[in-house]
From TrEMBL:
Species of origin: Collimonas rhizosphaerae
GO molecular function: dioxygenase activity
SUPFAM superfamilies per UniProt: Bet v1-like, ISP domain
Rieske domain boundaries: 7-108
Protein name as catalogued: Aromatic ring-hydroxylating dioxygenase subunit alpha
Metal-binding as UniProt keyword: yes
Keywords: 2Fe-2S, Dioxygenase, Iron, Iron-sulfur, Metal-binding, Oxidoreductase
Organism classification: Bacteria, Pseudomonadati, Pseudomonadota, Betaproteobacteria, Burkholderiales
């Protein structure tokens, strides 16, 4: 079951143009597009007549025309034209969803419209900050979105999964401090004289660094790793700040959409540095997707399942999600140990 009364990233805002863009979100087929005045629209991707996907049709002005019988729907989902008859049944309209552009993303609300509030959109302002350089890219993963959240909250895997990019023995071996509130999980590692990972060495040109690393989760599918680093023993000197984002949107129970990006507050005018970081980040995310997909494909609720000390953060994150789901559906939360 999914949490519906929340904002999810459905696409990058730049993906949506005056053309039909289909995507599955929370097991619902949705078609999105941008109208002639620049506004975003999202409808259920199913004609009310024979259930042909509306995304297989075309835009006629700001209206979607079904590919089967030419029935047209406006940006609000109202059926406005049926070529074979003049009378338009009220039931011919299709469901529409709030779709809002903010921080460079298209955010969709799949739940109760009366609870929809743009102020609840998660803060990803770093993505549009003029004081930072970076970019987001999209990946699809054949895994429960919660496994992606687990992965971001537990950087201790970097020495085994990311040997050529963000590998750090210090991160793997550090004892983290875990802070939990009803709306956030934060995992802090304070590292001294850490040997720079291959990626950090490229960015900072330092063999060793001191840094504070915060891995953060906030509902529903938002994760961020904030890093503040400086030359060893020089906390008052040059501090470099990096935010690495992973934003997860469930597609189905076992697949998800992922948007990832790394934003820095130094060398922001260096395109070669940006290109190098983007290449390394794509490699890192591909490695994360691979290992999470292996876990999903091999998941067995009846097999032995253990938690490690580093799992406290992911357990707390799932408890937050379970509470939100319980409030929405008034059902008991699922057993944490048995959920994939």
């Amino acid at each position: 079951m999914f949490i519906h009364n929340a904002w999810y990233v459905a696409a990058l805002a730049s993906d949506l143009k005056a053309e039909l863009f289909p995507r599955t979100v929370l097991n619902k087929h949705v078609v999105m597009y941008r109208t002639s005045d620049g506004k975003l629209a999202a409808l259920e991707d199913r004609c009310s007549h024979r259930h042909v996907p509306l995304s297989k049709g075309c835009l006629v002005g700001d209206q979607i025309q079904c590919a089967y019988h030419g029935i047209r729907f406006n940006a609000g989902g109202t059926c406005v034209h049926i070529p074979s008859q003049k009378i338009i049944p009220q039931r011919a309209s299709v469901k529409s969803f709030p779709l809002v552009e903010k921080y460079g993303f298209a955010w969709i609300w799949m739940g109760d419209r009366d609870l929809c509030d743009e102020a609840l959109i998660p803060d990803h302002s770093v993505c549009t900050s003029p004081r930072h350089a970076g970019e987001m890219f999209y990946a699809h993963a054949n895994t429960d979105y919660r496994l992606g959240i687990d992965n971001f909250l537990d950087p201790s895997h970097v020495s085994f999964v990311h040997l050529s990019t963000v590998m750090s023995q210090a991160v793997t071996e550090a004892s983290p401090e875990i802070m939990v509130t009803p709306s956030e999980v934060r995992v802090r590692r304070i590292l001294r004289m850490e040997k720079s990972s291959p990626l950090l060495k490229k960015m900072m040109n330092l063999e060793h660094i001191d840094r504070i690393q915060d891995a953060i989760f906030f509902p529903v599918g938002n994760t961020r790793i904030d890093t503040t680093a400086h030359p060893p023993g020089q906390p008052e000197g040059m501090n470099m700040r990096i935010s690495t984002l992973g934003i997860f949107t469930p597609e189905t129970e076992t697949t998800c959409h992922l948007w990832a990006g790394l934003y820095r507050d130094f060398g922001i005018d260096s395109q070669p540095l940006s290109d190098a970081i983007a290449k390394e980040l794509r490699t890192t995310i591909a490695e994360d997707v691979y290992i999470c997909q292996q876990a999903q494909a091999n998941w067995d609720n009846d097999a032995v399942f253990i938690h490690l000390a580093v799992d406290q953060a992911s357990i707390a994150a799932r408890q937050i999600l379970d509470v939100l789901l319980q409030k929405e559906t008034q059902v008991l939360p699922p057993t944490l140990v048995k959920s994939a």
